[in-house]
Amino acid sequence: WDWKEISSNPALTLGMLREFPDKWWDWWEMSSNPSLTMGMLRVFPRKWGKWWDWKEMSRNPALTLGMLLEFPDKWWDWISISGNPALTLAMLRIFPGKDWCWGRISSNPSLTDEILREFPGKDWNWKNMFHDNSTLTLEMLLMHSDEGLYWEKISSNFALTLGMLRAFPDKDWCWLSISKNPSLTLAMLRA
Question: What is the DSSP letter of 50?
Fold first, then answer.
């Protein structure tokens, strides 16, 4: 068996690790595996003198607040967590003194209006905001329309609605992007 490949396989389970604890698992690969669980971290905190790769784990979409809380002294990469789609408002609240990258959070698909309201004075990158954010709402655009948003990028957002287009008729929409956007509707074409 190729244990390195199994280490990166999304079908990896804690049961497999327990059944074969002495195989040549690749801990870096497991650190980035989307099937990573808290159980794996607890049962195998260190193996063969090798550590989990906490920087790689910081990028892993399987990252949870529980992992950060249970292992707060590990070498988390807060800049990578800033761009991780697993980022939550709770993480930002519980770890306010960490080295957050607000520019990366600005383009994080998990960015919510609640995060923007709770942290208004941060160094947001308004140009990159909302273009790839599935939580985009008309309310978010109404609240922040004067912040220098990049409307061409917002034009390709899958959450784009007719209401958004109607609310901002004078913005620099990219009609080519809207034409390719899967959210295009007959009502948009008629408007």
Answer: B
Residue 95: count of CB within 10 angstroms of its CB: 17
- Interior/surface letters 102-133, b for 16+ CB within 10 angstroms, e for the rest: ebbbbbbebbbeebbeebeeeebbeebbbbbb
The predicted-structure confidence for 85-140, as pLDDT tens digits, reads as follows 999 999 999 999 999 999 999 999 899 999 999 999 899 999 888 877 888 999 99
| pTM, full prediction | 0.86
As a whole number of angstroms, the distance between CA 77 and CA 2 comes to 29
What gap in Å lies between CA 125 and CA 116, rounded to an integer?
12
Are 36 and 13 spatial neighbours (Cβ–Cβ below 8 Å)?
Answer: no
Q: Where do we find the tokens 């959450």?
A: 159
Residues facing residue 47 across a β-bridge: 50
* Other C-beta atoms lying within 10 Å of the C-beta of residue 149: 21
Using alpha carbons, select from 83, 73, 146 the residue that is nearest to residue 110.
83
* Residue 41 one-letter amino acid: L
From residue 38, give the alpha-carbon distance in Å to each of 32, 68, 129, 146.
Answer: 13, 10, 31, 42
Provide the sign of the torsion angle of the four alpha carbons 159, 162, 166, 169, taken in this order. Answer: positive
